[in-house]
Amino acid sequence: MKSQKMKKGKPGIRNTVSQNATGILPGKLEGRLQSVYRIVAAVMIVLMFVLLATAMLGMPEIGDKNNPDNNEVARRYIENGLDETGAVNIVSGMILDYRAFDTFGESCVLFVATICVTIMLRIDGRGGAGDDEETESSKKAFGIRESAFAKLDNRNYEPENDTILRKSALIVFPIIMVFGVYVILNGHISPGGGFSGGAILGAGFVLFLSAFGFNKTERFMNANTVRIITLVALLVYCLSKCYSFFTGANHLESGIPLGTPGAILSSGLILVLNICVGMVVACTMYSFYALVRRGRI
Amino acid sequence: MDTIITILFVFLLVCAVAASLAKDSLVCIILFSAYSLVMAVIWILMESPDLAITEAAVGAGVTGILFYATLKRIDQIDMQAGTKEVTATRKLKKS
Amino acid sequence: MWNLIHEHLNDLVAVALFVIGFGDLLFQKNMIKKIIGLNIMDTAVYLLLASQGYIEGRKAPIVVDGVRDAAAYINPIPSGLVLTGIVVSVSVTALLLSLTIRMYRKYHSLDLDYCLMMARHEDKVNG
Prior knowledge:
heterotrimer, B: Four Helix Bundle (Hemerythrin (Met), subunit A), C: mainly alpha, Helix Hairpins, 5 helices
């Protein structure tokens, strides 16, 4: 196979591992079951496409004005969106002021995702479940050196200092970070906001990590800072927007002046919430990559 | 403006079909990153720039890298498990 | 017929992408390609949802020099919904990928049927 010649040493099964599930059914019956499954699946797909396509033809025309969902709610958002939230970007104003509690739930989804991925992929060499399972099986079965997985964090499978990546990362990394911070801070003025800015920052950290390895990244983004940043951001968001439980979902003035629309320090609380959401998203993206890469943030 | 969107939609469909028919997982992932970049351009033409930035940063950026990191991790697990189990499954694949 | 398709182009493309992604889930053996299929379905649904808010000839919902009347901007609500959806689908992908890694660590294969068969075999063996 072409891809296997590239790698040194034992090639991995990366592409299609398509051994059929033998063993239970005799070969011929297994084959026929497979083909029956494929035919039924193909028929179902074609049927689904025809059904959905005909349903789509009944939908309102794309782009016409009196589309049923351009009702008074959208008009309400657009017309006094700027006055009530102070955000020039109505989408950000809607997400972080009218529906701030809903976006808080969404940030918790990201936090829970990080927890679950940590539980599943955790290898920390101190006898964690993942660690034992591998080192035991590898030690017992093949006598491979002690706890090979504990040393996962150094770059034993990648070129040590990949000069092209390092040099380009040196140039690109600051630009990505400045752009990410810009997108977060200007969330309520220009398009962007917490989510996109956070994703950009997360991608920047991932680039730094893959270029300069873990030791350099640990100086800033080690496990504690990631945890502290996420917790502080979620707590600030929670304290500032969870009152709707008690006030029956009507709005409490946040006391921060709305300021002149268009200025960075305008639109009251939206700027704070944008920063919180941006931090949560950035830390989540970074910890996803770090966990998949070495089982430890 | 309509022609551009139709061309982009055609390219989107081509990317999606190619990503499902590709043999090698790495090719699949690269095609998926291309798919989400085209999607980001479509969001711009649909007058919603917020979605464009998010889709670009998330679709090609983070998801693509996560897929690639998983492939690296799978190769690491292969290297760690040593030869015995690996060749066993490869023999199965060859038959 | 042709302008009927043109009027609903976004929805038809979204449905086509959804079916391609769904086909991926059904036919692909490799777990990573199934996850890519799921992502394609995600984007298809977001395309359908956000293209309902699009209004021909209107600008993005950013209030430019104080123009506040609703006839100048597109409908902001669908793009607000889809924005959070895109980020959530990244978390779903991350969860699926970590499950794939754990599956690969135990059964050394990305083929779902093979792993299920091995799991059933193991349950039978150790009772």
